[in-house]
TrEMBL record:
Full protein name: Peroxisomal biogenesis factor 3
Keywords: Peroxisome biogenesis
Function: Involved in peroxisome biosynthesis and integrity. Assembles membrane vesicles before the matrix proteins are translocated. As a docking factor for PEX19, is necessary for the import of peroxisomal membrane proteins in the peroxisomes.
Native organism: Frankliniella fusca
GO biological process per UniProt: protein import into peroxisome membrane
Superkingdom classification of source: Eukaryota
Length: 375
């Protein structure tokens, strides 16, 4: 019996070896596949949790961005009103008995300066806060335990740098814009009939002039309007290492602000905002009852036009294409000035559409992703 079994094994020894190798290999392969599948499943679960965490954190950062922009924009708006004060000139115009035309000439420049300043300041504010808050958000999301390497006090100092725009930055920006608006408007008569297209071209000329000089183009040199010099940054509560880290982050932010990509996005925001201004002005070109050309106003009519324009002295009539209507510049100026009045009870004319701008949102997401990568 045993000899037969021994002979059988001997005759089929090679088959048993091959079968054993095949079966053992299959078993090892199965175990290896099970292990890899388990690891893959674990990794997928971890990546899913990480993606969900980052997605929720990013959404939270976006909400914070929107809320911060909307809360700071009225302060920027108020700073512009104080820097370019048309209300004083309007009051002086209504009480003056002489030199009214001279006051009108000043008011003409101030009114268009204030609109342009609000357009540029809002665009800069939106880009600045998107970069700052997404940069901080990127640092905070690096570690699941919140150990981002960015101390709370450093975050506070870094984010508070935007107050420079509200203070001296807005004043510098308004002065720059007024220097460009002055030569464009000084030769435009107060009696000139302005169509909606003429008004749009006037804003285009202002934008083109502001952005034509490489050295003082605000969208190419945003950083100098939004950040104070390093020696004026309050670092009293920071350690030496934190001060170095702060200046490093500031330098990275400046590189982003002065980049061609940010300049392109800011230019798009500015153009979008000027288009919104023209759309708003179109409402005032519609209610005109005659397409017949009207003789230009006399100097006396120009001098007294503010009160009638502010009182909205227009007649009800049927719809007329705004492009076929003209308004003397003297009557257009108070309308333009009124657009920039600060009213806390209504939405800002431009800031909401800038907050929802897709280009700005995508850029903010890219900043978040770039600074959210673990080193």
């Amino acid at each position: 019996m045993f000899s037969r079994f021994k002979d059988f094994v001997s005759r089929h020894k090679r088959k048993f070896v091959v079968t054993g190798v095949v079966v053992g290999g299959a078993w090892l392969a199965l175990k290896y596949a099970q292990q890899k599948l388990h690891e893959y499943t674990e990794n997928e679960a971890k990546e899913f949790v990480e993606r969900s965490r980052r997605q929720q954190h990013y959404k939270s950062t976006e909400r914070t961005c929107d809320q911060t922009i909307l809360s700071l924009s009225p302060a920027i708006h108020e700073s512009i009103i104080n820097a370019v004060n048309t209300e004083e000139l309007a009051a002086e115009l209504q009480t003056a008995t002489s030199e009214k035309l001279a006051i009108w000439e000043k008011l003409k420049v101030k009114a268009f300066t204030r609109v342009a300043a609000l357009v540029y300041a809002n665009s800069i504010l939106v880009l600045l806060l998107r970069i700052q808050l997404n940069l901080v958000g990127g640092f905070l999301v690096r570690d699941a335990n919140g150990e981002s390497g960015l101390p709370t006090e450093l975050q506070h100092v870094y984010l508070s740098l935007c107050h420079h725009l509200r203070d001296s930055g807005v004043v510098d920006l308004c002065n720059l814009i007024e220097r460009h608006v002055q030569p464009i408007l000084e030769n435009v008569s107060l009696k000139k009939p302005m169509s909606l297209r003429d008004t749009e071209e006037l804003f285009w000329s202002i934008q083109n002039s502001i952005e034509s000089n490489v050295y003082d183009n605000p969208i190419k040199t945003i950083s100098k309007y939004v950040f104070p010099p390093k020696e004026k940054v309050d670092t009293e509560n920071l350690q030496d290492q934190e001060v170095q880290q702060l200046f490093s982050i500031m330098s990275e932010t400046v590189d982003l602000l002065d980049s061609d990509e940010v300049a392109s996005i800011t230019r798009s925001c500015v153009s979008q905002s000027f288009a919104a201004v023209v759309d708003k002005l179109a409402e005032h070109f519609a209610p005109i009852c005659s397409l017949e050309p009207v003789a230009g106003p006399s100097n006396e009519q120009v001098a007294n036009a503010w009160a009638s324009a502010m009182n909205g002295a227009t007649k009800d009539c049927s719809f007329i294409n705004p492009n076929n209507v003209t308004i003397p510049l003297a009557k257009l100026i108070p309308i333009v000035s009124k657009l920039t009045e600060l009213n806390h009870n209504k939405k800002d004319l431009w800031i909401y559409q800038l907050v929802r701008n897709d280009l700005v949102k995508v850029f903010g997401a890219n900043v978040y992703e770039a600074f959210g990568q673990k080193e």
